[in-house]
Specification:
globular, about 30% helix, alpha/beta, 4-stranded parallel β-sheet, 6-stranded parallel β-sheet
């Protein structure tokens, strides 16, 4: 039997969640023995028993494996700008599989809820300032609205405060939330809270992908991207409403994220000007609340 070895050499949860269904599809279409090295393998092992997971939960181990010429890298260079397409299409193209959106399967703990009553989860943090909702009053306005509607709001970010102190870009979480920020909580703990939430409000980030995988509706707030790189089912969005606002740099063929990923304050068009991050600054709390009202009514 032919063997195929793949390494998802990314520490990002969203990257791994987007790739897993296509590794599974590759194995089923070829009937080859597939070895996969990736982070977060504990989420998938019980769901994809046809894949042989190489224990590589630590970044250093993945870095060792990816230098093995027998392994196919998930970050293989594509002949086009991957930022202009759905994240899952990157996987399907590299693995030479026909693209069709597939929700990843994860092992959701069969445990009772941690929080009684109706509630919504939120995640405010990300991996660069341009990915944040940079209207800093917005989160509090949304939390206050949800509480007025009888919802508890549960923050499931890993960190209470996150950012880059050296350039004075440090971000907190809103008040009046159930604070479950902790590096001691596992993703299985997060999945329990997501499982019983009415919906999740977040950014274009890994916890939004996890919410989708768990089966909880996702509402994404984004200015730096059109969110077309995300999934299309089970999602609603709050995006800039004016064409005069600079937006969607992530999806531009002229912006190379790989070259800029270590610059926390990167803003391709307006860095260090009054227009820096104007995309998400333009998204008001009122706009997001109105979008959420439609979601609540629909639910």
């Amino acid at each position: 039997m032919k063997e195929i070895k793949i390494v998802i050499d990314s520490i990002c949860l969203g990257d791994t969640l987007s790739w897993i269904p296509y590794v599974d599809k590759l194995q089923k279409e070829t009937n080859h023995k597939v070895y996969l090295a990736c982070n977060y393998s504990d989420l998938f092992e019980k769901e994809y028993k046809n894949i042989h997971f190489v224990k590589a939960d630590e970044t250093y181990l993945i870095n060792q494996i990816k230098h093995n010429p027998d392994y196919m890298l998930a970050t293989s260079t594509l002949p086009y700008n991957w930022q202009t397409m759905p994240q899952q299409k990157i996987a399907s193209d590299i693995l030479d599989i026909k693209y069709k959106e597939i929700k990843p399967k994860v092992t959701v703990p069969d445990k009772p809820r941690n929080i009684m009553g109706k509630y919504v989860t939120i995640a405010c943090h990300s991996t660069a300032q341009l990915k944040y909702w940079n209207n800093f009053d917005g989160w509090q306005e949304v939390v206050d609205f949800l509480r007025s509607e009888g919802y508890n709001v549960v923050c499931i970010d890993k960190h209470r405060v996150f950012g880059a102190e050296d350039i004075s870009m440090v971000n907190g979480i809103p008040n009046r939330v159930i604070d479950k920020t902790s590096s001691n909580l596992t993703l299985f703990d997060r999945m329990i809270d997501l499982k019983y939430a009415d919906f999740h409000i977040g950014l274009a980030s890994g916890l939004s992908w996890l919410s989708w995988a768990v089966g909880t509706h996702v509402h994404v707030i984004s200015g730096f991207s059109t969110t077309d790189e995300l999934f299309k089912s089970g999602i609603t969005k709050s995006l800039p409403t004016s064409k005069d606002i600079c937006q969607g740099c992530w999806n531009s063929k002229d912006f190379n994220w790989i070259k800029n990923r270590h610059d926390w304050g990167v803003c391709p068009e307006h860095k260090d000007t009054p227009r820096q991050f104007e995309c998400s600054k333009s998204i008001t709390g009122e706009q997001v609340i109105n979008d959420i009202k439609k979601l609540i009514k629909k639910n």
